[in-house]
Amino acid sequence: MNIHEYQAKAILREFGAPVAEGAPALAADEARQAASGLPGPVYVVKAQIHAGGRGKGKFKEASAGEKGGVRLARSLDEVETFAKEMLGSTLVTVQTGEAGKQVNRLYIEDGADIDKEFYLSLLIDRATSRVSFVVSTEGGTDIEAVAHATPEKIVTFSVDPATGVLPHHGRRVADALGLTGPLVKDAVSLTERLFSAFVAKDMELLEINPLIVTKDGRLRCLDAKISFDDNALYRHPDVVALRDKTEEDEKEIEASKYELAYIALDGTIGCMVNGAGLAMATMDIIKLYGENPANFLDVGGGATKEKVTAAFKIITADPKVKGILVNIFGGIMRCDVIAEGVIAAVRDVGLAVPLVVRLEGTNVDLGKEIISSSGLDVIPADDLDDAAQKIVAAVRGRS
Ligand code: ADP
Ligand code: MG
């Protein structure tokens, strides 16, 4: 789960990390009000969307002006003008895709006098099974581009969970950023605070880009992005309360109600599969035959008829879907149960696109029998290869 910058900064503040003063705003007069509580004379009006690259982003509407989603204002009037321009407009950044995201919230923040911009993030490194730090002097820019062009400018190290974070980790951060004097101590303290926040809140990613040194020689987290581990949300009701559903894909929200692992993608073939590995393989083979999956969907090992029906509804509600591939391996789950679920779902929601079903495993013959005797227009497939070719052909035949 992701949250907005202003919410992430509130968490950082709670853990004692240095962030600027600021307040969120949903309307232009609130933005003015928020700014009037700040020291000034420079205020920053920041679009709150779940995507980065806002500063260099562009609004779709001409009425939103030429500037991007992070604007420096030099008076309260200017704050109000920018807020009016940005609210309700659609911001397109490198991370939003072409459709962009509508700006419904702003964050009004004290303007910082920036001397240097750095990059600092913490994430779970699957290779070492540890929390890793990623540090670079090249802040404020796209870190993927830095990793590509000048990988030597990125320093990474991980923290042993047995010892937790220690002062030497902070000195490593300071060293990587070329900090000297009192800033070294500040970096040690910041490193410890960020690590504590990361662990305490079960984060998956904590990214500060940029971390800055101000002209008066202080560290400050100028941007903050946090992703939380969904599997640990049950023990953080305070985090769940920060969820902004307007930022999430509706289909993904619906899927989470039924505990379906669903991720919307850009292709045309809707997939319903049991098991994450099989779902990945199904997506791969669709690509191999030249089409693209419209989603990743793992109905899980113990899927019931209700879950299968819900999954079917989610897939068919997606207007991009031109065909559906059901690929189920009946292990714990029996093929006849799946077949009944599929039939019930098709009867319930109707079927406007071709459907290929491939079943294998426990009670497979019974499952196939149920499907073939249902009288529904289902294309049966013998194996994964056959299934992928059939759905690709069916989708192409229609377009
Ligand atoms: P994004 O990463 O989405 O573009 P940031 O919060 O990183 O958004 O802001 C982009 C740039 O705007 C920063 O790299 C920094 O140069 C500038 N900026 C952001 N917040 C402030 C602030 N409070 N004061 C001064 N400049 C800021
Ligand atoms: Mg940023």
UniProtKB/TrEMBL annotation:
<comment type="subunit">
    <text>Heterotetramer of two alpha and two beta subunits.</text>
</comment>
<dbReference type="InterPro" id="IPR011761">
    <property type="entry name" value="ATP-grasp"/>
</dbReference>
<dbReference type="GO" id="GO:0006099">
    <property type="term" value="P:tricarboxylic acid cycle"/>
</dbReference>
<feature type="binding site">
    <location>
        <begin position="331"/>
        <end position="333"/>
    </location>
    <ligand>
        <name>substrate</name>
    </ligand>
</feature>
<dbReference type="GO" id="GO:0005829">
    <property type="term" value="C:cytosol"/>
</dbReference>
<dbReference type="InterPro" id="IPR017866">
    <property type="entry name" value="Succ-CoA_synthase_bsu_CS"/>
</dbReference>
<feature type="binding site">
    <location>
        <position position="109"/>
    </location>
    <ligand>
        <name>ATP</name>
    </ligand>
</feature>
<feature type="binding site">
    <location>
        <position position="274"/>
    </location>
    <ligand>
        <name>substrate</name>
    </ligand>
</feature>
<dbReference type="InterPro" id="IPR005811">
    <property type="entry name" value="SUCC_ACL_C"/>
</dbReference>
<protein>
    <recommendedName>
        <fullName>Succinate--CoA ligase [ADP-forming] subunit beta</fullName>
        <ecNumber>6.2.1.5</ecNumber>
    </recommendedName>
</protein>
<keyword id="KW-0436">Ligase</keyword>
<dbReference type="InterPro" id="IPR016102">
    <property type="entry name" value="Succinyl-CoA_synth-like"/>
</dbReference>
<dbReference type="GO" id="GO:0006104">
    <property type="term" value="P:succinyl-CoA metabolic process"/>
</dbReference>
<dbReference type="GO" id="GO:0005524">
    <property type="term" value="F:ATP binding"/>
</dbReference>
<dbReference type="Pfam" id="PF00549">
    <property type="entry name" value="Ligase_CoA"/>
</dbReference>
<dbReference type="GO" id="GO:0004775">
    <property type="term" value="F:succinate-CoA ligase (ADP-forming) activity"/>
</dbReference>
<dbReference type="GO" id="GO:0000287">
    <property type="term" value="F:magnesium ion binding"/>
</dbReference>
<feature type="binding site">
    <location>
        <position position="117"/>
    </location>
    <ligand>
        <name>ATP</name>
    </ligand>
</feature>
<dbReference type="GO" id="GO:0042709">
    <property type="term" value="C:succinate-CoA ligase complex"/>
</dbReference>
<dbReference type="GO" id="GO:0050074">
    <property type="term" value="F:malate-CoA ligase activity"/>
</dbReference>
<dbReference type="InterPro" id="IPR005809">
    <property type="entry name" value="Succ_CoA_ligase-like_bsu"/>
</dbReference>
<comment type="pathway">
    <text>One-carbon metabolism; formaldehyde assimilation via serine pathway.</text>
</comment>
<feature type="binding site">
    <location>
        <begin position="53"/>
        <end position="55"/>
    </location>
    <ligand>
        <name>ATP</name>
    </ligand>
</feature>
<dbReference type="InterPro" id="IPR013815">
    <property type="entry name" value="ATP_grasp_subdomain_1"/>
</dbReference>
<comment type="pathway">
    <text>Carbohydrate metabolism; tricarboxylic acid cycle; succinate from succinyl-CoA (ligase route): step 1/1.</text>
</comment>
<keyword id="KW-0479">Metal-binding</keyword>
<feature type="binding site">
    <location>
        <position position="46"/>
    </location>
    <ligand>
        <name>ATP</name>
    </ligand>
</feature>
<dbReference type="Pfam" id="PF08442">
    <property type="entry name" value="ATP-grasp_2"/>
</dbReference>
<feature type="binding site">
    <location>
        <position position="112"/>
    </location>
    <ligand>
        <name>ATP</name>
    </ligand>
</feature>
<comment type="similarity">
    <text>Belongs to the succinate/malate CoA ligase beta subunit family.</text>
</comment>
<keyword id="KW-0547">Nucleotide-binding</keyword>
<keyword id="KW-0816">Tricarboxylic acid cycle</keyword>
<keyword id="KW-0460">Magnesium</keyword>
<keyword id="KW-0067">ATP-binding</keyword>
<feature type="binding site">
    <location>
        <position position="209"/>
    </location>
    <ligand>
        <name>Mg(2+)</name>
    </ligand>
</feature>
<dbReference type="GO" id="GO:0004776">
    <property type="term" value="F:succinate-CoA ligase (GDP-forming) activity"/>
</dbReference>
<dbReference type="InterPro" id="IPR013650">
    <property type="entry name" value="ATP-grasp_succ-CoA_synth-type"/>
</dbReference>
<comment type="function">
    <text>Succinyl-CoA synthetase functions in the citric acid cycle (TCA), coupling the hydrolysis of succinyl-CoA to the synthesis of either ATP or GTP and thus represents the only step of substrate-level phosphorylation in the TCA. The beta subunit provides nucleotide specificity of the enzyme and binds the substrate succinate, while the binding sites for coenzyme A and phosphate are found in the alpha subunit.</text>
</comment>
<feature type="domain" description="ATP-grasp">
    <location>
        <begin position="9"/>
        <end position="241"/>
    </location>
</feature>
<feature type="binding site">
    <location>
        <position position="223"/>
    </location>
    <ligand>
        <name>Mg(2+)</name>
    </ligand>
</feature>
